[in-house]
Structures are given as structure tokens and as C-alpha cells.
Amino acid sequence: MLSIKALQFDGSSKLVNYYTAPHECPFCHNSVTPKTFQAFLKGNALEIVYGCPNSNCGRIFLAQFNRGTSGASFAYQSSSIGTFVEVEFSDTLKNLSSNFIEIFNQASKAESLNLHHIAGIGFRKALEFLIKDYLIAKNPEKEINIKKKFLGKCIKDDIENINVREMGERATWLGNDETHYVRKWEDKDIKDLKLLIKVTTHWIEMELLTEQYKKDMI
User: Fold this and answer.
1) In a shared domain, residues 171 and 106
2) CB-based burial label for 57 (10 Å; 0-12, 13-18, 19+)
3) Which of 48, 71, 79, 115 gives the lowest tally of CB atoms within 10 Å of its CB?
């Protein structure tokens, strides 16, 4: 538990407790123990001004805290929007589906701006491009049919690799939740969707690399 004297709207100060400071600078994205400068308190909202201790960065940022359920202490919520760093993908995936990578990073940028509803839809779209480009690469003669099919049916009918099929199917379930009014998987969220997409890309990449080296080293 940490404590800080916070300046209130009327000019007075009050000692408040909060659970933890942010552990990452939103600008350089290094793991840091930030410098603490000033705190401001208004109602149930606590804001603390921090500085990045990294000499190559040194940027100032603001962290927001909300009063906990006990009403006595504040819990960390988020920090200032900093610089967005794109997710890097392998050359194998770049060659397979550049659209997947572009859409995934646009969704990631939306998520970094706390646009979680938009981000979820974007990740779902990225998944569809990944799966369909994967299937078209393996079955170019079925390209027109694959493009027209619903994603779920593509996964069920056309994917032979059981790991890609099962992980892609589950990622689609969560992706569909991001587009529907009522969520089916209430105990899962956008983090689970991103993780399932990551697992799906892993199995796709392993399959493509296996096929490539089997072909190159006969």
C-alpha cells in the first residue's frame, strides 16, 4: 500500500492511500519505477503525475486511480495515452496475410486508446482475414468459395489441421461475442480473444514452416 498527499479542488491537501503505481512508461514502453511528482484528488478520482526515469525518455505522464470498493483506498486504472508500438509478426505470416497484420495492428491501436468495443470488432475481422488467406493459400482453386463462406463454416469444413481448426473456432466464438448485443462467453474478454488469435497464428506458422522445410530438404 502506498500513500501520497493529494491536492484537492478547494486548494487543501489530503493524505490518500493507493495500491500500486504504473509499471510501464506509456511512451518508451520500458518497465519502470516512475518518479512521483504531484497528486490531485476530486471525489472518487485520484490522478498522479509521474515522470519516466529512463534518461532516453524522461516523459511526463498522468495515471488515473479510482476509489476501491472499500472506499478507503484507490486502485490503478490507466495511464496517459503514449506512443503506439505495432505488434511484430514473422515473415511467414507477413507473406501469408498482410491484411491480417494491418487490421490486427489497427485494432491494437484502438485498444491502446481504450476503444475496447471497436478493438474487439477489429480483432474479429483480422481473424477472418487470417483464416481465409490461410485456406486460399492451401486451396487456391477454392478461393471464390472460401471468400463467400461464413468464417465458422470455413473453419468447420475446410481446415484439416486440428490445432488450427480448434483454436480458430474458439477465437471465432469470442470474436463473435464482440459483435453481438448479448455475450455468450461472459467469463472471457478481449484479452482471451487476442491470446486465441496468437495461438492460432502459432499453429498456422508451424504448419507452413513444416511444409516449407519438407519441400526444400527432400
Assistant:
1) yes
2) middle
3) 71
Q: pLDDT by residue (tens digit) across 113-125?
A: 889 899 999 999 9
| pLDDT tens for each residue of 195-206 | 999 999 999 999
Task: Output DSSP code: residue 86.
Answer: P
DSSP string, 183-202: -S-TT--HHHHHHHHHHHHH
> What distance in Å separates the CA atoms of residue 121 and residue 174, rounded to the nearest whole number?
10
Rg from Cα positions in the chain: 23
Smallest Cα–Cα separation from 78: which of 60, 96, 91, 65?
Answer: 65
129 within 8 A of 94, measured Cβ to Cβ: no
85 part of a folded domain? no
Tell me the pLDDT band of 218, cut-offs 50, 70 and 90: confident
Residue with cell 506509456: 26
> What range defines the domain where residue 48 resides?
2-79
